[in-house]
Amino acid sequence: MIRRTVFFCAYLILFNIAWPSDHDIGSDIFPKDLNQLSLEQLEQLRDQTKSKLDHLANFNLSGGVGTICFRTLPQEHERVRQWVQIDLDRVYPIDEIALIPAIWQDNENGYRDDGFPREFRIIGGTRENDEQHLIASVKADASMLPRIAPLLISGNGVMASWIRIEADLLSTRFHDGRHIMQFSEAMIFSDSENVALHQEVSASSNQSTGIGAYNSQNLVDGFLPYVMDAAEGQKSNPYLSGINIGEHPSLTIDFKAPTRITSLRIHMIEQGDTVPHAQQPNYAVPPHIVFEGANQPNFSDAETLWDFQHRNLFQISPIVSKRLDPKLYRFVRLRCVEPFRFEGWTRAGKIVRGSRLGFAEIEVFSGTQNVARGRQFSASYDNHDPNRPLTRLTDGHNIFGEILTARNWISQLARRHDLEYQLPIIEQSIQYRYENQKAKLRLWVGIASTLGVLAIIIFLVDRILRQRAIFTTRERIAADLHDELGANLHAIALLGDLAQASKHSPEKSGENLERIRALVGRTSLAVKHSTNMLETPGLYQNLPLEMRQISRRLMSDLDHSLEIEGEERFEQIRPRKRIDLFLFYKGALINILRHSNATVVRSKLTLGTSQLELTITDNGDGIAKEAPNPEPPSLKRRARLVGGKLSVIPSSGGGTSIILNMKLGRS
Asked: H/E/C letters for each residue in 191-202?
């Protein structure tokens, strides 16, 4: 019973305490979708996330001086609606809108967005039929802000000739805490083309400083706060000509056949990773360039595609793009109207001055395809740097790696933000699981140690109980033999005396001999089953009758009576206790016969609902007042075996009273 209880407790500990459900782990800390994953799945998700990040463009912020963003006028309250609208040149199916945040360098937390609205709507419509559609309604949460990455919003293919951004809850700008809305750039993609580039912009308010940083047209000038830093592709140094290449140098590319030209994109020479930058962002870029398209090799039919001029640093960025009216041209030429003037020192320590030209890449697009990639420009001059050949202009790579399309680049930056937000949560969830496993391991070790100690205790207790059971069995056998065999032998002796006394009365003598024979048979049966008297067939099944018979046999020469109250409750007494009760009664009568010299014996057995009391009173010699332990040892032992309380006291009329009290149990 003890072992079963201990093992049941161990079962409860192992399966109800030491093994909490994974669904309860970190339910207030981690997203539910992560909480439902196993540790192995979380580790796979972490590795997949890191692998994806390895293939995404990096955040490499542009340095130097340039335009920053579009900004509304400061407002006193955050709930002042502000809006900005981009009018497109025609109706387009809108696939995606990218909002590029204005970026602020926080001295404590590094780079982050500045003035990005916390609640805003994007609406698209057409001028022709005055229709408008709600494209998106955005409420920024922890996964969205703060950010330096583009925010991508699906356009769902809505047909629109204008897009409006309406902010309902403004953010504060860092330097004074006033409420504004600002964006570095808004890009509207129809397929892979940014149709917002250089379109007209109107706004509810505009903190314009003229040539400065916050003009509304900055929203669509194509100048981004990033340097294109792809994670893949071979690195390539930019093209840079020699010095003194003439006042009007030019570069020409031949497509071999008329090609539909839709846009141009030029990449300035990257400044590398030096801090601070050694050159200005317009290094080697002529202040005035004209891109021309033609179908005749001598450009007699030339048409101007792009007249690009930059007179200050606010008119240039690492990447400059121009959308064109699509036309067919076989040749495209870059012609310097005003050259870049270089001044520097030679290794010999002499000053050198002269014109110079350089770009990281020149892209010519026909739709979404860069048709210039892999072709070679020809130059109007021969002064080339052998370490930076003309092929660098069209190899499709910069010093960081592959050059991406605008939409692909912006999409990768946005995806990087999402994954970099998720990765720490995944790692924290994994760490939580690791800690939980460690706690489980510690608990398992503790349980194993506890169970080991319990096993030792069980072994020792079981051994003690076995030894006690052996002792109890021996004691019971000895008591049963003493009480049953001793009493029967004494009864046989008495019956023998009676038979001897009645030898002249054959009838009485025969009766006594018959009683002796029955008692001998009973004694033989009791001795045979003395190790377990419960196995003795028919023994003590009718306890009241057995008690009356034994009292008549033993007390035949004495004045004796046995009174039983509650005889119908004898069924409440267990079989083993019936035997012990009978043997106790029998042993008490034998003790009276042997030691008391009594002539009168009165026995009374009372059975209550839960208690039993047996009182045996005689008029014999009594017990000595000075006797410290008046209870006979055999009766004390039998009382202990029956589970009762024994009292031996002088009776009121002289003699002795033996009283046994015991609780009744269910049979």
From this structure: CCEECCCCCEEE
- In this predicted structure, the answer to whether residue 62 has a pLDDT above a threshold of 90 is no
Q: Are 264 and 322 in contact (CB under 8 A)?
A: yes
Q: What are phi and psi of 69, to 5 degrees?
A: -170, 175
Task: Label residue 147 exposed, middle or buried (CB < 10 Å: 0-12, 13-18, 19+).
Answer: buried
Q: Is 440 exposed, middle or buried (0-12, 13-18, 19+ CB in 10 A)?
A: middle
Provide the token pair at 298. 């001598």
Query: What is the architecture of the domain spanning 542-667?
Result: 2-Layer Sandwich (3.30)
Least confident span in 132-136, 405-409, 540-544: 540-544
- The rounded Cα 350 to chain-centroid distance in angstroms is 68
Cis peptide before 630 (omega within 30 of 0): no
Do residues 353 and 245 touch, judged by C-beta distance below 8 A? Answer: no
Measured distance CA(153)–CA(171) in Å, rounded: 19
Q: Return the structure tokens found at 219.
A: 């929203």
Tokens linked to 222: 């194509």
Over range 254-258, report the average pLDDT.
97
Instruction: For strands 600-607 and 559-565, give the pairing.
Output: parallel
Q: What residue has token string 């005003």?
A: 338
**CATH code 3.30.565.10 region(s) in the chain:** 542-667
pLDDT at 465: 81
* 153-157, 266-270, 594-598: least confidently modelled range: 594-598
User: What pLDDT sits at residue 16?
Assistant: 44
What is the DSSP code (8-state) at residue 287? S
Burial class from Cβ neighbours inside 10 Å (0-12, 13-18, 19+) for residue 382 reads exposed
Q: Name residues whose C-beta falls within 8 Å of residue 184's C-beta, 6 or more positions apart in sequence.
A: 68, 69, 70, 100, 101, 102, 103, 218, 224, 225
| Mean pLDDT, rounded, for 537-549 | 77
Q: Is the dihedral of CA 272, 277, 282, 284 positive or negative?
A: negative
Residue 26: CA count within 13 A, CB half-sphere: 21
**SS3 (DSSP) at 149:** coil
Give ranges for CATH 2.60.120.260 in the chain.
70-220, 239-403
Q: Which amino acid, 37?
A: L
> CA-CA distance, 349 to 360, in Å (whole number)?
28
Name the residue among 574, 578, 561, 656 with its Cα closest to residue 618: 656
* Chain center to CA of 86: 45
Q: How far is residue 108's CA from residue 105's CA, in Å, rounded to a whole number?
A: 9
pLDDT of residue 487: 64
**Omega into 146 within 30° of 0, i.e. cis?**
yes
pTM: 0.68
Residue 348 has pLDDT above 90, yes or no: no
Phi, psi dihedral angles at 195 (to 5 degrees): -80, -5
pLDDT band at 640 (very low <50, low <70, confident <90, very high): confident
Six-digit token string for 527: 């001795």
CATH superfamily of 239-403: Galactose-binding domain-like (2.60.120.260)
**Separation of alpha carbons 56 and 50, rounded Å:** 10
User: Topology of 70-220 in CATH?
Assistant: Jelly Rolls (2.60.120)
Q: What is the pLDDT of residue 18?
A: 40
